[in-house]
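Hey team,

Filing this mostly as a record. A colleague (T.K.) asked me to run one chain through the structure pipeline before their review meeting, and I want the input and output archived in the tracker in case anyone asks later how it was produced. No errors, nothing strange. Just documentation.

Input sequence:
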Amino acid sequence: MMIPLPLFVAIPLTTSFIVPFFGQKTKGIATLLANIATTCLLVLSIYVLITGQTGIYQLGKWSIPIGINLVLDGLSALLLLTISIVSFAAMLFSIQYMEQYTAKPKYLCLFLLMVSGMNGVVLSGDIFNMFVFLEIASIASYALVGFGCEHEELEASFKYMVLGSVASMFILFGIGLVYGITGTLNFAYISKIIQSAGLNNGLYFALGMFIVGFGLKAALVPFHAWLPDAHPSAPAPISAMLSGVLIKALGVYALVRIIFNIFGVSIPIGWILVTLGVLSMVIGVFLAVGQWDFKRLLAYHSISQMGYVVLGVGIGAVVLAQGKDPAWASLAILGGLFHLINHSVFKSLLFLTSGSIELSTGSRQLKQLGGLAEKMPMTRTMCTIASAAIAGIPPFNGFWSKLLIVLAAVKAGFYGLAAVTVLVSLVTLISFLKVQRYVFLGDLPEKLSHVKESKGSMAWSMGILACLCIVMGLFLLWGPLRDQILTPAVQVLVQNLYSSDIISMQ
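Output structure:
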């Protein structure tokens, strides 16, 4: 049975309008409703992937390309699952963690609005409604970054809002150019027109604005200035959402969809992606090494790890444009997409562990911590698993996706890119050895003698993500699961199935 695609937007959106009406005394009911909503989304996304559903949902029965439509294919199904897993874990973590704030129902409202917007971006079949959903998610995230209302948080939120608005301006101008030239907003029909008439200067300019706009949303170097301030300032569950899925859904996914399924790949565009990926990997990881604020260190690693994703996709684009063996392109894109979902899991786990540490100790400065392995053994175990995953240590999930990217670079003859990938992984390992040394090892400061381990829903959410870090690398590369979850997403990009499938359904 085909699941109505609007449910992925309607469930969190409807719940977000309900929960603000609950007050301080009834916030437990609001929390329960929010967790039910994220659980339903997780179940629906798993069902969609297991059954291999694809299709189009036309809103209001208006036919394409005039009407609004939602499209489900292999790539959007993969992103829906990623968003659902992280939002489920973050919402579960929020049950206890957000008790320190006085306006929890408002937090739940903004959280669900952000989830609704991200799901809408992933499912949108036309470029303008993608922008509308992108703005819903962005505006909610601006408020969530400044949710604590301290000076640092408000400053970071304002900076994030200004640069996010600049990114939206670039994207909206690009949409206007595309509509003026092609006369349509539908992804498939824009692609069909471009394939028949080719790209002109106006479309190239629009593509450039999309790269800048979505590059800002994804915090790729040199568009990354907002992220190191926004992520540390937000509450830990929101940091997990921002790093785990928001920069992917609003940035990387949208950019990849537009390049591969609308404009088409070319050698120059492929090398632009590769360049952005390498710059983000290298600059992000070296900036992270020098950080002593735990969450700021994790924020810079988000920039670096997004570089892996864009590098893998960029290598695939170059290989396709050069007319080389498509299997090499598939391998590179498989590595990039696999690392995207891997990063969602281990980086979300790292931000949740940082929140657990900050809640217990009152600090996230590495030099003020130490000796927490004895007081917080469960958090230490979860953080160690996530650190090993992000550093690419086998058998954790991060190792396998990085290995695929390295193998694809070698097979395509890009030996320098393979070497850079390995080097960045080694520097990442050094960075997280520093975290282990200063947070969990050494002597416990006297002022931290009262520290207690996080329990309940916070422990469960971290445990779920830690288990995924262990099993994802082992099972998702296994034939049947890979063909069910990852391969359809790769085929959408490599074979450009998106446009041809939609038009053939009309």
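Quick notes for T.K.: The beta strands are 55-58, 69-72. Residues 145 and 163 are 14 Å apart (CA to CA).
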